[in-house]
């Protein structure tokens, strides 16, 4: 079945460590996105990529990095520079059309101990 | 980024009741999207609206694209326990980017 797969579902890390969250899609979508969700808040855009080998900062990119070497993959690294990394991270993709409809993965919950 | 104001922030209702929530923007949108997020999962698209004044239904859900293009409404009729979750409105801005409201947390008591 076509969809978006995020891994791991749950992740724990110590302060000062970098961690990479995986996102893979087989929908043949050009655009991919990373959002952060905190309790009681909406989804905030971290980074997005509209095409392979290109990506742009979203609204809260500080302390994060991404790569887009393949169309299917858009991994997110949460670096030690991110002050409050504990959150629920959501990856999404779209066909890049003007409607903006996004298809989301099931999310990764990161907890910093 | 662009701000969307979504209300109410939370709702506690009895099974069988109808629910209404809305979303407003300071800017004009050409598309309004409504998503539902089950606990611990990613959001799923419920309804997409593309034209001012449009009224679209999906089962017990009905959404409307405001005539001013600055607001949208979502109604759920005859709520059931599985309607529990967070409902988000969203709209595109700056190309392929979406902005989201802060969500309405719905609790349905059996």
What brief labels describe this structure?
heterodimer, A: 113 residues, mainly beta, 7-stranded mixed sheet, 4-stranded antiparallel sheet, 11 strands, globular, B: 110 residues, 6-stranded mixed sheet, 5-stranded antiparallel sheet, 56% strand
Order of helices and strands of chain B: EEEEEEEEEEE
* CA gyration radius of chain A, whole angstroms: 13 Å
Number of strands of chain A: 11
**Of all protein chain pairs, which has the greatest interface, and how many residues does each chain bring to it?**
A-B, 29 and 27 residues
Describe the sheet with the most strands of chain B: 6 strands, mixed
Q: How many strands appear in the DSSP assignment of chain B?
A: 11
Mean pLDDT of chain A: 92
Walkthrough of the structure:
The complex is a heterodimer of chains A (113) and B (110). Chain A has 113 residues and is mostly beta strands. Chain A has no helices and eleven strands. Chain A has strands spanning 4-7, 10-13, 19-25, 31-37, 43-51, 54-57, 64-66, 76-78, 87-94, 103-104, 108-112. In chain A, strands 2, 4, 5, 6, 9, 10 and 11 form a seven-stranded mixed beta sheet that branches. The model of chain A has no long low-confidence stretch (mean pLDDT 92). Chain B has 110 residues and is an all-beta fold. In chain B, the strands form two sheets. In chain B, strands 2, 4, 5, 9, 10 and 11 form a six-stranded mixed beta sheet that branches. In chain B, strands 1-3-8-7-6 form a five-stranded antiparallel beta sheet, with no helix packed on it. In chain B, a hairpin with a 2-residue loop joins β6 (55-58) and β7 (61-65). The relative contact order of chain B is 0.33. The mean pLDDT of chain B is 93.
